[in-house]
Specification:
Oligomer: single chain
Number of strands: 11
Structural class: mainly beta
Strand content: over 45%
Shape: globular
Helix content: under 10%
Radius of gyration: 13 Å
Number of helices: 0
Order of helices and strands: EEEEEEEEEEE
Distance between the termini: 40 Å
Length: 120
């Protein structure tokens, strides 16, 4: 069973930065696809960024240039570095793991999430 636990969320002012972490057990971040999603109230989760096993990554247009996903294979942790945060970035952020790149945006496993609130 794959288990993912996010941390690092909180409240930050507009223009500020946060780094989220995702600790993974039962799978390795070096394999498959590791992804970040965010969920606004009353909506389905949207993908934010993902990192493939070969290191290739992609960031959603809405956050491109501001958010960066990365992973530490030795610690088995996925990160999401967020900068120039805006109030519209306020959401619950969760990480996910998929065994293949094909299922990256429809992951098998996802964590409970961590709240990020950006105040104006």
């Amino acid at each position: 069973q794959v288990h993912l636990v996010e941390s690092g969320g909180g409240s930050v002012q507009t223009g500020g930065s946060l780094t989220l972490s995702c600790a993974v057990s039962g799978a390795t971040v070096s394999s498959g696809c590791m992804a970040w999603f965010r969920q606004f109230p009353w909506r389905e989760p949207d993908w934010v960024a993902y990192v493939l096993s070969d290191g290739g990554n992609l960031t959603a247009p809405s956050v491109k240039g501001r958010f960066t996903a990365s992973k530490d294979n030795t610690k088995n942790i996925l990160y999401l570095q967020m900068s120039s945060l805006k109030p519209v970035d306020t959401a619950v952020y969760s990480c996910a793991w998929s065994q293949t790149a094909d299922t990256c945006l429809h992951p098998t496993y996802r964590g409970q999430g961590t709240q990020v609130t950006v105040t104006s």
